[in-house]
Specification:
The structure is a single chain. This protein is mainly alpha-helical. It has two domains: 82 residues, no CATH class; 407 residues, no CATH class. The chain is built from 18 helices and three strands. Strands 1-2-3 form a three-stranded antiparallel beta sheet, covered by helices on one side. The chain is globular and about 60 Å long. One of its GO terms (molecular function) is monoatomic cation transmembrane transporter activity.
Amino acid sequence: MRASNSPGAAPSTVDERLSNHTDYALEDDLGFEMVTKVGMMTTDPSSSPTITISGLVPALLGEGEEEETDVNDRTCLIDQEDLNLNDPEVRTAGLANAESCCSISIQVFFPFLVAGFGMVVAGLVLDIVQHWPVFVQVSELFILVPALLGLKGNLEMTLASRLSTQANMGNMDTKQATWSMVYTNLALVQCQAIVVGLVASIFAMLTGWMSEGEFSFEHGLLLCASSILTASVASFALGLVMVLVIVLSRRFNINPDNVATPIAASLGDLITLVLLSIISSTLYGDLESDQWLAPLIIVTYVLLVPVFVILSKRNSHTEKVLYNGWTPVICAMMISSLGGLILDQAISRFDGIAVFQPVMNGVGGNLVAVQASRLSTDLHQTSTLGTLPAAHSKVCSSPWAIFCEPNSDSLSAKILMSFVIPGHLIFTLTIVLLEAGHINHSAFFMVLYLAAALIQVWILLHTAKWMIIFMWKKNVDPDSSAIPYLTALGDLLGGGLLWLTFEILFLTGDHHRDESPILGGGL
C-alpha cells in the first residue's frame, strides 16, 4: 500500500479504510489510477458512516510516483485490493446515498414535464399535418414519422448518455478534452443521421410498395431527401443543445444523466416533426418544377459521409462507436418503422390517435432513457466492461425485481414509474383543453389509456435492467447500444397499445372515428 500523510498500518475494515473526505486511487489493469472521491459524514462516532462517491477522475501515474492533490484533508492512496468498488459493502454504502429520492425527483420531474409538453405540441402538429396534401398523397411519410422521431433515441439520447458518462468520469473537465469530445461526437451523430435517414426512407418505400402494390419514383426521391435532410438538421441542432446541457449540468453540480435525455426528448419530437413536415411539403410543391432538388440533396449528403467519418475517428471513444455502433442504430430504426406501419394503419381507422402517438411513445422512451443512462453510468463507475459488480450479478431477474432491490437503481425506477400517471394526466388534460384529438375524452378512455402507459413503461424499465447488464457482461458499451433498442421498443409498444386502446373503445360503442370529409374513408 502506498500512502501519503497517512501513517500507520493498513486498515482492515471499510469504516477504518474510509476517513473524512479521503481520496482513493484505484489502479486498473492498464496502470491508470482512477481517483475516487469518497466523503464520509457522521455526527456520532459510534454510528455507521454515510459514504458518498462523487465521481471518478483519471490520473496517469508512473510506477512509484505519488499523486499531488489539492485536497486539504489527508490523502491516502491504496491498492484496489484494499478498497474494491466491487465490494458490496463499499458499493452499497457509497452509492445508495449518493442521490436522495428528493434530488432525483426534482432533477428528473421538471425536465420530464418540459419534455412532455414538447411531445404534446408534437402531437398537435401531427394532428394538423396529417391532413396536408403531402401526407395524404405520400402516406409512406407516416411510416417515416416514428423512425425519424426515434432518432432522438438512436442518436441524441445515446449522445447524451455517452457525454454524461464521460462527464461523470471526469473526462470533460478541461476545455481541450471537452472540445475533442464534442466535435467528434457531433461528427459521429451526423454520419449516423445521414445513414439512418437514408435507410429509413428506403424501408418506408419498400413497405409502401408491398402494401399498396405500386411504386412512384418521384415519391421515393421525396422520401429520401426529406428523411436525410430532416435527420441531419435535427440531429445537429439537438446535438448542440445536448452539449450545452451537459456542460452546464456539470458546472451547477447537477447529474447530467437526470436532465440531458429528457431535454433531448422535449425538443427532439417537435423539431423533427416540424422539419419533416416543412421539408416534405416544400419538396412536394416543387416536385414538378424542380425535379433536380431532391436528387441534389441526396447526393450532397452521401458525399459528406466520408468527411464525418474522418472527423469521428479523431477520438478513441467515438472511433469505437463508429465501428461498433451501427447494429443497434439500424435495428432500432427497423423496430421504430414497424411502429410506423402500426401508425399508418391506425390513422386510417382512427385519425384521433395521431395527437396521442408522440406523447405515448415519447413519455415511455424518455423515462427508460433516464434509467438506462443512470444504469450505464453506474456500471462505468463501479466496474470494468465485461465484469459485473456484485449488485448486478444477475442478468435475468423477476419482472418486479427492478422495484424491490435495495439500491439506487430500484429507487430511480420507482420514481420514474410514479411519474407515469400524473404526467399523462397533465398532458392529456392539455390536449383536452386544446380540443384536439377528434375524440370524446371519457373516463373509460382515460382508464384504458393510463393502463396502456403503465404497461409500456413497466415493460421498458424491466427490459432496460436485464438488457444493460447483459450488454455489459458481453463487453458491449450500453451507452451506445441500449437506448436505441429501448426507445424503439417504446415506439412499438406505445403504438400497439394505443391502437388496442382505440379498438377497445370502438368495440364497446365509444366511437372515435373522425367523420370529417377531409379524410373520408381514411388515407
